[in-house]
# Entry
Amino acid sequence: MFPLCRKSVVRHAEFGQRSPAVAVDERVGFVRVMRMMASVALAAAMLVGMSAPGAVAVSPEVTDGDSFLEINSSGQLTKWVRSFDTFSGYVRGTGWDGTRAITSLTSEALVEIKPDHQLAKWTWRLGQWHQQIAGSGWQTARLITGIGRDRFLEINTAGELVVWEFNLADQLTRWVIGTGWGDAKAIVGLGDLDFLEIHADGSVSEWIDQGDGLQEHPLPGLTLSDARLVAGLDWQRFVVVTASTGDLVEYSYNPTQGYVPIRRGTGWQGARLIG
# Structure
């Protein structure tokens, strides 16, 4: 269903050589402009009561662009929601001390790798969490990130890049779409098969599948070597907790400037996980 993407010299045979940096920026910018135009068209269709086209090139928003989750060192699960030029926190649970990883699927749903290596899908309904155990044996998962309402990516200890998808019964199906991903420092879901990879040296690439296979687009103007924690918000925003200062920084995509950082908070040294 998905073409296999190899992070090796084979990748160049499959996808061609990388273009110069300027062309890469133009390609990513073009994709984002097209998505912005499609989003406007989709909103207009909804306003006039029309059905939207089925082939609109818009990635589903990961959390709606305005919220993310944090587990702090005290085991509190907090939902952070945009409030003017910062984010306001609302505690949504305690006892999350041993959680190994979390990632949002929507603003009201998350995936957790539990202390016993079970995978749980949590949905917030009527003021409380509802848990569905979706699997076990997740001790080999190294990184996870949400890319849509029912999808997330995993990089495992074997270096495989895997797409996981929930069906209507919250059962999982997997597709291995890449190998050789063992050196990725972090991955950041922006939308459906649209994500950032932070390399070990802090450099960043955006990976996008526009129907012709997963393609890498290096972002030479963006360095995230100081990122301790990172979480995607939607296809043009993500947040970072910095290692050196404990700041919360939001990066927003600008068509002419690329990803622009804005400090949204301080004192985030106690954050253990975000997603």
Residues 8-24, 36-61 have pLDDT under 50 and may be disordered. Residues 5-274 form a domain with the Tachylectin-2; Chain A fold (CATH 2.115.10.10). The two ends are 27 Å apart (CA to CA).
